[in-house]
Amino acid sequence: MVTTAALLARAAFHQGWWSQSMPFFGVERTGTPVEAYIRLAHKPIHTHQPIEHPNILLINDHNLYNPKKLGRKLTIVNNPNVNLYQLKPTLLIYDSQQVSSFIFNKNLAIGLLGALSACWPLIEEKNWLKAIKEQFINQEVVQKNWQVFIANYELATKLINKTHD
Amino acid sequence: MTKNISNNAQKLFLKGSEAIARIVANCQPGVIAAYPITPQTGIIEELVRLKTQRQANFSFIQTESEHSALSVVLGAAAMGVPAYTATSSQGLLHMAEVIYNLPGLRLPVVMTCANRSISAPINIWNDHQDAMAVRDAGWIMLWAEDVQEAIEQHWLAFILSQKLRLPVMINVDGFRLTHASEPVILPSTKLIHKLLTNKIKPVLDINKPQTTGWFALPEVYHRQRLSLRKFIAASWPIIKKNSQQLNNLWQPIKKELLGQGGHDSNSAVEYYGSAQARLVIVAMGSIIGELKNLADEANKQKPRSVAILKIKLYRPFPEEVIQQYLNKAGQIVIIDRSPGLGAQPPLFSDIMAINQLTKNNISSIIIGLGGDIDLIKINKIIKKHGQLSS
After folding, report:
1. A interface mutation test: which of B182, B293, B372, B373 has the most A CBs within 10 A?
2. How far apart, in whole angstroms, are the C-alpha atoms of residue A142 and residue A133?
């Protein structure tokens, strides 16, 4: 989640925005809840405070999903147990980990960025790719992450179009 | 990663700890020694990565403790080698003995303190208790608001340490800055060395063995310690001159790459807001960014309500500069991120000790011990003293 947040902020930076990502985690154990905050703006960002009421909320573990605590404009939740995709204009709950589980054999949050890109197309593809290349450096890892990103982008795009139909 | 390249600087998107490692590498210390501790670890990891990828050329010594790490850089400095270390929290406290030795020996060393609370109970998040525990040890102490300022203060720290022959500590809020990724402008090695010579006169020579910092009888000891006190207190003009030189060289380059934003870096304080503000809030570190936002909101509602005085140079404490900004203020609130157990909090105590200040309009709040900053409390103070409607 921390890397995913940094990726989003980095891609926004390449898009020409001011951006910031900042993680919050406690005892560093796999499986414990982790939060990461991302700010994007057209002017310098002064604050380094956590975000309490986000515009966009990405949740990579459905166990942490609380329907009373949603992003103001958009919430995307990974839930591998969802049989029927559930979509409202501001809420997308779907299985975002199926591709990363297949490619990496684990649940990586980068899939959520693909879905975000489908719902919120403000960052160009070339800048997402640039950010992924910088973040992971190793060509094979870059390639796999890009696959996960694109697959989730296409999946989320289909879901959105299906709902609009 | 590069947004724009010139011979002088690059615009990059970096995590705070990576940015600190890069500026340290660009300053080209000869020796780095460290022992890992959260949230400092990322700085050292990145430095080692730069070394193993041959992007930096320093001797790295991973020691068995922070005490040893600072002892190693002390030895390097005594041999005339620019030396660097970084730590946090309990690690800083474990260094305490050597922290006092360095200024006493007049040895230039640069250290990043990724500020973190101290035990007990154990807490890994940010406040200023660690650095405050050693605030009167004889180090030059700088405090950064954001990653960009941390970069600039590290550059300045290497210059000052060598010009003053004193150790310099750059305080960077743990997690809030060390783990925050943001756009920064990083000066090149070539540009840095227009001001930084890395020439340190050695006090030890393996070909001519001698001792340093040896036994002193009370009269000599007393004189030496008072002499050190006098020298540090009088070092402000040297700090100011070197800060201005850095500013003159750096600001135009930074502005060209960064556009809007950034600070007029490296003076003792930054004053944000109207000189006639009804309330002046004094603070240090990353909380300043949020205070600036709150001041902007308050001043939109009621002009000249709130101003912020950011302390960037904490030791030597720039009393005269602070006094200039505070002696016309209506109300003054001092924010400390260290409790001052058994006494008043440290920043509040320092400001109350300024002779020429009127004291009856100054109040103290302690905020954010162990990480969480209570913005509601700060907002209430702004509304009350800034005379804003609720």
Report:
1. B182
2. 6
- CA separation (Å) from B180 to B13, B14, B156? 10, 8, 22
Burial of B100 (0-12, 13-18, 19+ CB in 10 A): middle
CA distance A3 to chain B (A): 10
d(CA B72, CA B84): 10
Quote the pLDDT of residue B353: 96
Q: Do the beta carbons of residue B21 and residue B170 sit within 8 Å?
A: no
Length of chain A: 165
Instruction: Give bridge partners of residue B336 from the DSSP assignment.
Output: B366
User: Residue B156 contacts by C-beta under 8 Å, 6 or more apart in sequence?
Assistant: B142, B242, B243, B246, B265, B266
Pairing of strands A74-78, A56-59: parallel
Chain A within 8 Å of B174 (Cβ-Cβ)?
Answer: no
ipTM over 0.95: no
pTM: 0.95
Residue with tokens 């989640």: A1
Per-residue pLDDT at B262 exceeds 80? no
Neighbours of A126 (CB within 10 A): 11
Q: Which of A14, A21, A49 sits opposite B181 (nearest CB)?
A: A21
